[in-house]
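Researcher: Sequence recovery benchmark, item below. Answer with residues only.
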C-alpha cells in the first residue's frame, strides 16, 4: 500500500466546521472550534482525556446539535441529523465498537449500505426483480469492501466471533459501505497490539488513496504523527494548536499541556531520556520511565447533570445499531455516545 503524502494545501475543502461550541448545562465541552479537512487529507485530532474530541465528532455527525457554530460538507451546511449527515457523505466509527454481534460480517456491512440503496419497504417485501438486482449489487459492493479490509474470508462468520482487531476493521468496512467522502475515526487503534496498529495505519493510508478524506482521533502519538498531514490539538474544549506533525510535536504549549514526555521513537526522545537519566544520577534519584501516554487534563469543575443532549440519541445514527443497555441483545457494545 502506498503511503505518499499529497500536496493538499490547495485541495478543495471537504469539511468546514466553524465556531463549533457545545455546552452541556454549565459545562462547555467544545468552545468555538474551527477545523477544515481538505480533499486527500488525513487530519488528526488529539488532546487529553475529556478535551472534547468525541463531543466535537458528535457535533460533526449530527449526534449533538452544537450550541453555536455550523458544520458544512462540500460547501453545504449539514442538517443536525445523523442519517442526513451519512447521506451527505460523512461516515464514522465509534470509540466503543458498535456491531450487530449476532449478524454475520457481511450482513453488518450490508447494514451500512442502506443509505445508498433506493429500494423501499414494498420492494423488499415483494422481493421483485428491482429488489433482487439492488440486493445483488449491495452484496457485491459489501464483498469488495471486506476484501479491501482483509475480512472477505470471514464474510459468513458471526461478528461476535471476530478477534477485537478485526471487529474494528469491520466497523471501518461498514462505515465505508455508505460511500463517504469523509471518514471520521474515533480511536481506531484503541486496545490494539503493535502489529494490529501497523495494519490499521496501512488501511487508513489506503482509504485516503481511494479519495476519501480522513479525520481521526487517537491517543497513540506515534500513529498520529506518522499518519497525519495536519494535526489539531484540543485542550479543555479549545483548539490550542494546529499544524503539521512536526510543528505540533515541537510546540511548547502542546508538550506542556498534553505530550508531557516525548513519546517512544519521537525525534529527540532518546536524547531526552539520556538527559533524564544523567540528571537523576547527578541528584541521586531514579529517573522516571518515559511514557507514550499523554498527561491527563484537569477535569472541568462544572455540573454536567443537566446536559443538553437534544437529538443525541445514538440509536438515531444511521447505520449504527441500537446499543447494549437499551435492551438490544444483538449489540456488542456499551451505551454511550463515544
Ligand atoms: N452527553 C454529555 N453530557 C454531559 N457532559 C458530557 C457529555 N458528553 C461529554 N461530556 C463532557 O464533555 C467533556 C468532553 O468529553 P469528551 O468525551 O468529548 O472528551 P474526549 O476528548 O473525547 O475524551 P477521551 O479522550 O477520554 O475520549 C467531558 O468533561 C465530558 O464529561
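Model:
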Amino acid at each position: 500500500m502506498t503511503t505518499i503524502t499529497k500536496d493538499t494545501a490547495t485541495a478543495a475543502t471537504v469539511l468546514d466546521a466553524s465556531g463549533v461550541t457545545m455546552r452541556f448545562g454549565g459545562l462547555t465541552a467544545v468552545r468555538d472550534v474551527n477545523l477544515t479537512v481538505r480533499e486527500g487529507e488525513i487530519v488528526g485530532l488529539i488532546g487529553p482525556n475529556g478535551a472534547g474530541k468525541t463531543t466535537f465528532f458528535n457535533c460533526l455527525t449530527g449526534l449533538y446539535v452544537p450550541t453555536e457554530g455550523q458544520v458544512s460538507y462540500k460547501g453545504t451546511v449539514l442538517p443536525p441529523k445523523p442519517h442526513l449527515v451519512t447521506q451527505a457523505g460523512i461516515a464514522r466509527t465509534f470509540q466503543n465498537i458498535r456491531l450487530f454481534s449476532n449478524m454475520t460480517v457481511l450482513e453488518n456491512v450490508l447494514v451500512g449500505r442502506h443509505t445508498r440503496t433506493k429500494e423501499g419497504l414494498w420492494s423488499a417485501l415483494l422481493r421483485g426483480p428491482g429488489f433482487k438486482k439492488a440486493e445483488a449489487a449491495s452484496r457485491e459492493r459489501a464483498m469488495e469492501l471486506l476484501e479491501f479490509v482483509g475480512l472477505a474470508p470471514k464474510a459468513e462468520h458471526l461478528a461476535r466471533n471476530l478477534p477485537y482487531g478485526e471487529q474494528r476493521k469491520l466497523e471501518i468496512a461498514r462505515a465505508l459501505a455508505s460511500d463517504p467522502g469523509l471518514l471520521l475515526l474515533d480511536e481506531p487503534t484503541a486496545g490494539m497490539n503493535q502489529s494490529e496498529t501497523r495494519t490499521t495505519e496501512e488501511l487508513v493510508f489506503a482509504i485516503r488513496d481511494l479519495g476519501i478524506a480522513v479525520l481521526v482521533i487517537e491517543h497513540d502519538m506515534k500513529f498520529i504523527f506518522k499518519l497525519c498531514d495536519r494535526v489539531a490539538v484540543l485542550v479543555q474544549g479549545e483548539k490550542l494548536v494546529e499544524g503539521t506533525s512536526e510543528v505540533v510535536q515541537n510546540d511548547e504549549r502542546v508538550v506542556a499541556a498534553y505530550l508531557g514526555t516525548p513519546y517512544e521513537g519521537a525525534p529527540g526522545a532518546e536524547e531526552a531520556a539520556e538527559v533524564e537519566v544523567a540528571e537523576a544520577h547527578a541528584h541521586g534519584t531514579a529517573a522516571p520511565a518515559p511514557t507514550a501516554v499523554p498527561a491527563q487534563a484537569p477535569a472541568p469543575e462544572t455540573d454536567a447533570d443537566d446536559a443538553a443532549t437534544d437529538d443525541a440519541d445514538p440509536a438515531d445514527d444511521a447505520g449504527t445499531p441500537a446499543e447494549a443497555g437499551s435492551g438490544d441483545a444483538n449489540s456488542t457494545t456499551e451505551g454511550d455516545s463515544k
